[in-house]
Structure to design on (317 residues):
């Protein structure tokens, strides 16, 4: 038991020390300054060439979402997730050891070149996250947590990291075992994280960049805005892609009926949703469970994508 306590406390001090060193020591492998640099980059793009020109440069909830960025990227780890997850991983490994299992590795990719390992991690993780994201919309309970992200009514880059801390727990927990099954030979996945963060900022930015055929591969603002549409044709939503739009096209959940520049965002009665950080964190635990991710009828046809999206290149089923 003492081992777990020591791990718990050292996790706080280790992560606190790490964050402090990052802040004092700008360098190319530094998450703290990359987050600031990427945010400034996309903010400048929004200012220089806004998609919605009438939208203020400092849009509604700009500072709230700015706080969410630092909270979710750094502070939540600092406050507790790092400690709790270290204990969870240790307990899980101890549990496996009871059965003589040293690790979960089922696929050895250590001998691959670094770029191939990074690419594998990026694609596999993105596919897992696409599935987790669908789950967040499917489950009435998880939807209450995910609703924080969908409470954005004016879209901009910083909305990317507006989400409830519960999402970090759900994503990290569900992706842990599948990723642990791949025996990566590298410890530092910095490039993957920065690349995914860049695309996430891009998806949410008030900036239009037609990607041509690459739109079937990478998520983009024109596609992701429909994920935030206040009125979806299907109760569980569409365009669940995180970094890659590919999965939505492959599995028939892509939805781009028209230019979504000025569509209403959020969900039914979003005006009543709390607009402070603490109230939003607390909301999922007190909101009554009423299956509230229903906006449209459930008897919508499952094949809504094919019916509504004339430019869909891949037919499902
Ligand atoms: Zn969503
Ligand atoms: Zn989003």
């Amino acid at each position: 038991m003492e081992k777990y306590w020591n791990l718990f406390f050292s996790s706080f001090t280790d992560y606190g020390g790490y964050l402090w060193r990052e802040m004092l020591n700008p360098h190319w492998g530094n998450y703290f300054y990359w987050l600031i640099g990427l945010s400034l980059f996309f903010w400048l793009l929004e200012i220089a060439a806004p998609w919605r020109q009438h939208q203020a440069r400092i849009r509604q909830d700009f500072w709230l979402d700015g706080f969410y960025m630092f909270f979710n990227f750094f502070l939540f780890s600092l406050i507790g997730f790092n400690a709790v997850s270290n204990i969870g991983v240790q307990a899980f490994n101890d549990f496996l050891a009871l059965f003589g299992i040293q690790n979960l590795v089922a696929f050895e990719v250590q001998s691959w070149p670094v770029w191939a390992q990074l690419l594998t991690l990026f694609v596999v993780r993105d596919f897992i996250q696409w599935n987790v994201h669908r789950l967040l919309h499917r489950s009435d309970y998880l939807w209450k947590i995910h609703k924080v992200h969908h409470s954005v009514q004016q879209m901009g880059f910083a909305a990317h990291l507006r989400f409830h801390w519960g999402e970090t727990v759900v994503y990290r927990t569900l992706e842990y075992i599948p990723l642990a099954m791949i025996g990566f030979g590298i410890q530092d996945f910095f490039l993957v994280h920065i690349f995914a963060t860049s695309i996430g900022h891009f998806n949410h930015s008030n900036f239009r960049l037609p990607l041509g055929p690459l739109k079937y591969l990478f998520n983009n603002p024109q596609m992701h805005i429909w994920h935030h549409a206040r009125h979806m044709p299907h109760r569980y939503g569409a365009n669940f892609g995180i970094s890659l739009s590919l999965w939505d096209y492959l599995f028939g959940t892509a939805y781009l009926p028209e230019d979504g520049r000025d569509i209403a965002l959020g969900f039914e009665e979003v005006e009543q949703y709390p607009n402070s950080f603490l109230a939003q964190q607390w909301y999922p635990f007190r909101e009554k469970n009423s299956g509230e991710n229903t906006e449209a009828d459930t008897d919508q046809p499952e094949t809504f994508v094919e019916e509504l999206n004339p430019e869909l290149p891949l037919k499902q089923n």
Observations:
- The first helix runs from residue 2 to 24.
- Strands lie at 107-108, 182-183.
- DSSP finds eleven helices and two strands in the chain.
- Residues 133, 137, 146, 149-150, 227 surround zinc ion (ligand 1) (CB under 6 Å).
